[in-house]
């Protein structure tokens, strides 16, 4: 695996529009106050732990009913919630675990997340391709999603090759926070994909152990953190911060590398 800091990223850092620091001694404590949080485990219709396909679909449906209204959801330490499609969060919404050491798990089974197309209009951001999506409007008035927070979570994909996924997506977003989040187990994937993001922070993320060895017809690319691969309109990203990150073992197998070369980046800002 290599970590790529593009020329665009370097220029942004120099101009103080970006701050990228794997070790920042001045890291402030978690400060996004979330009032009137609701515990996921107490919601009617939620199944925790091992779940059937029908229960996973119900979990996603129940959670999206709350998150689509910008609710603040909490998960107790050690809880595991299996989902059947993308969790979509509207402005002001949040998902947070109680514990930073025994983080709760949101699990993406391969049978539900089986996308193989990486084209923006066909499969890239479909409900079977993305774990958590908090994007704002992509057309019309282009209202951004504002103030979404993800904290103390593990987003884990079932390990099965031959799929193309994204863990966390936020396009046309402002004031977002992704903190103490772990993303792992994916095939060809982007761990965190932000675009047209303003005043957002990614802190203490651990993205690791992606693996695939498929003979793809489209260029395969796995990246830990990505900015502005698919910007919304002409809105660029600015005033964002990435710190305390760890990205490792985004692996491609021999036949994939033979055909395409080693397409794996740590951080990629376009």
Helix content, binned percent = 10-25%
Number of helical stretches of at least 4 residues: 3
Number of DSSP E strands: 19
In this structure, how is the largest beta sheet organized?
A: 12 strands, parallel
Q: What pattern of helices and strands is seen along the backbone?
A: HEEHEEEEEEEEEEEEEEEEHE
Q: Using the alpha-carbon principal axes, give the shape.
A: globular
Structural class: mainly beta
User: Percent of residues in beta strands?
Assistant: 35-45%
pLDDT < 50 stretches? 1-18, 22-34
Description:
Helix content is 11%, strand content 37%. By secondary structure, the protein is mainly beta. The protein has a domain at 7-14 and 96-269. Strands 1, 2, 3, 4, 6, 7, 10, 12, 14, 15, 17 and 18 form a twelve-stranded parallel β-sheet that branches. Strands 5, 8, 9, 11, 13, 16 and 19 form a seven-stranded parallel β-sheet that branches. Strand 2, helix 2 and strand 3 form a beta-alpha-beta unit. The model is unreliable at 1-18 and 22-34 (pLDDT under 50).
Write the layout of secondary structure elements.
Layout: H1 7-14, E1 18-21, E2 38-39, H2 53-67, E3 72-75, E4 80-82, E5 87-88, E6 94-97, E7 105-108, E8 130-133, E9 145-146, E10 149-157, E11 164-174, E12 177-184, E13 188-198, E14 201-203, E15 206-212, E16 222-227, E17 240-243, E18 246-252, H3 254-260, E19 264-269
Parallel strand pairs: 1-17, 2-3, 3-6, 4-7, 5-8, 6-10, 7-10, 8-11, 9-11, 10-12, 11-13, 12-14, 12-15, 13-16, 14-17, 15-18, 16-19
